[in-house]
Amino acid sequence: MIRVVLVDDQPLLRSGFRALLDLEDDIEVVAEAGDGLEGLAPVRRHLPDVALVDVQMPVVDGIEATRRIAADPALAGVHVVILTNYGFDEYVFDALRAGAAGFLVKDIVPEDLLHAVRVAARGDALLAPSITRKLIDRYVTQPVATGAGLDELTNREREAVALVARGLSNDQIADHMVISPLTAKTHVNRAMAKLHARDRAQLVVFAYESGLVVPPGS
Questions:
Q1: What is the number of other CB atoms lying within 10 angstroms of the CB of residue 3?
Q2: From CA 217, how far away is CA 136, in angstroms rounded?
Q3: How far apart are CA 5 and CA 46, in angstroms?
Q4: What does the angle CA 85 – CA 90 – CA 96 come to, to the nearest 5 degrees?
Q5: Which residues are in the HTH luxR-type domain (predicted)?
Q6: pLDDT tens across 144-187, in order?
Q7: So where are the chain's domains?
Q8: Ordered strands of the 102-105 beta sheet
């Protein structure tokens, strides 16, 4: 059973999401909250698989709530998915850096919401090719950061991280590297452990910030 906590200051939206999620046999909404500070308590109490967190809320916003969840070792199994009205913007990028597994626009169709919750619960990043493209566009206009951390990775791990940053799944990485899907997953997981990345979304951010992947045209 996938356990979900909803954190949003709009009661109507929370009710709609809860009604949709609770219809599924494999998903259960275990708690709701109206702001980031209020939401931390049920996240700590229930240890959900997924926390759906609004990016803009009173008291404590979604970015700070994500940062606090990511910083707590006891919450390592909680995958934060940011909810936004605006698509990919500066807030969402900051949330990915804070530790979010991905983001959803609030007008998402029901089928995509359900799929996203299941993807996040597996520990995969919610980064569609269009989102990866936005990350690339950001780094075209900004200097590349230092390569700190790259020396911790083997050559194969570096290659796997670079392919994650290009939006490839483990199966696609396996095909590209001519290895088994299990070996591809092992490379990705070891890279995540060495880089202290919570999920694949943070690997994507790392790949561009470190210069492992260079955006076209830069």
A1: 17
A2: 10
A3: 8
A4: 90
A5: 146-211
A6: 444 557 888 999 999 999 998 877 888 889 999 999 999 999 99
A7: 2-126, 142-210
A8: 27-33, 2-7, 50-54, 79-84, 102-105
Beta pairing partners, 180: none
Class of the domain covering 2-126? alpha beta
**Class of domain 142-210 as given by CATH:** mainly alpha
pLDDT digits (tens, 9 = 90+) for 15-38: 999 999 999 999 999 999 999 999
